[in-house]
Amino acid sequence: MSVVKSDIVGWLLDHLAYINQSYRCCHHIPLDTQCHRYVFKAEYFDIGKPHIADSDIAGGQEPGSGDSRLRGRKCKRKSREPNQGELEAQEYHEKVSQAIRDGTRKLIEQSIEVGEQGTDTRVPAGEDCSKKQITPVIANSMLIELCSMAKQMVQEQHQPVQVISDEAESVEDLNLLAHLTENSSDCARIVTLMGHRYLLPPRSSFLLSDISCMEPLLGYKKYDLITLDPPWENKSVKRSRGYSYLFPWQIQQIPVPALSAPGCLVVSWVTNRQRHLRFVKEELYPSWSIEVVAEWHWVKVTRHGEFVVPLDSTHKKPYEILVLGRYKGSSERQNGEPITKTVAVPDCKLLVSVPCVLHSHKPPLGEVLKGLTRPHPKCLELFARNLQPGWTSWGNEVLRFQHLDYFQELDTMEGGSSCCYSQTSTIEPIVPSSC
User: Fold this and answer.
1) Considering the domain 3-59+84-418, what is its CATH architecture?
2) Residue 404's closest CA among 167, 203, 207, 189?
3) Which of 47, 294, 401, 421 could be joined to 345 by an S-S link, Cβ 3.0–4.6 Å?
4) Where is the stretch described as Disordered (predicted)?
């Protein structure tokens, strides 16, 4: 379970616990009687202190406790008048900041009360996230290049789905490029791509391809929930050669209507740039026949409940925006009567969690969206960089954070068939200590 605390203002989430509940066992060696257990390395969520940019100190932002080392530093940037985009961003921030501040404090204080009544589940202080050294995985950039090459190699447009079942002993011969691959078993499995090993959650499916090779998804399923985290164009992305981006018109070409069941709930992650937010609401969703129904915020905090950067930081904000919409396609009918029913989506909700230090590793949404779709929904994540149990995932980096180097192996158990997937988390919930 990913939800630590639920309240009318939103949810406090434990992203790490959600990941680890999916990998309690893995049968990846043919004829091996042992069960290999994995967990995601905790260092990727070890954010103990907020990071405060020099520009925030010089601009008069109040540093948090324990950050006196940053006082007195001079800002090297020259003062200038804010441009139109910055003015719009500040106006938006002033509109939402108080609700974010109050809602986050409420969720964390309630979690502290729960912790004090029972077992203390707080995590010991970690290192300052601004100094944390994370070992890069060398295969990360390979996926995008392989997807580009695959466009020239794929000849048949409608390939059969590759299914990994409980009976399958070997998965070494699978072609993972531009082919829909489905792990239908109740255990995690390991697959190999170009000599690198990737861990697949149980009951997950994926398509590793770029935007020009999405045909295998069409006709596979119609989805009740679609989330997408597009690689938005901005200056920092352009300066970074290791990160691709799409123009708005390219994002608009994604066949979301063809993938959506009637009443499908569509959730888009949006950066804090107002032009991107306006594009989603005024152009992208209308072009897909999607009606905007709500706007939520993901709030990033340390393990002790502080914002990862000051809420009023002039450099970055400790939150991201989610735009929720309903697909308005024709309803399913039975005996001439529409049978599709849609539930009203609440507005202005908060998702509060300790973020992963890996770029664009978003928290899970399935549990907080329960009740807003039909029971047992079919779920799809577009532009995914990791896999989820029960979901279909697509993107040219869809296996990025499934690389085995991001995981560590725990104890080895005899009798692999006895330790199948369980909903029980392998770690205690993270409860921040203060706001």
Assistant:
1) 3-Layer(aba) Sandwich (3.40)
2) 189
3) 294
4) 55-94
Ordered by start, the domain boundaries in the chain are 3-59+84-418
End-to-end CA distance of the chain: 23
What is the DSSP secondary-structure string of 121-181?
A: -PPPP--BTTT---PPPTTHHHHHHHHHHHHHH---SSPPPEEE-TT----TT---BSSEE
Beta bridge partners of 182: 163, 205
What is the pLDDT, as a whole number, of residue 174?
81
Give the residue-averaged pLDDT of 297-312: 94
Model pLDDT, residue 351:
97
pTM of the full predicted structure? Answer: 0.83
Q: Over the stretch 64-111, which tens digit does the pLDDT of each residue have?
A: 333 434 444 444 556 778 888 889 999 999 999 999 999 999 999 988
- What angle is formed at CA 127 by the lines to CA 123 and CA 130, rounded to 5 degrees? 130
Nearest CA among 26, 314, 19, 359 for reference residue 186: 26
Average pLDDT over residues 207-211: 92
Task: At 242, list the tokens.
Answer: 């290791």
Closest C-alpha among 322, 396, 327 to residue 362: 322
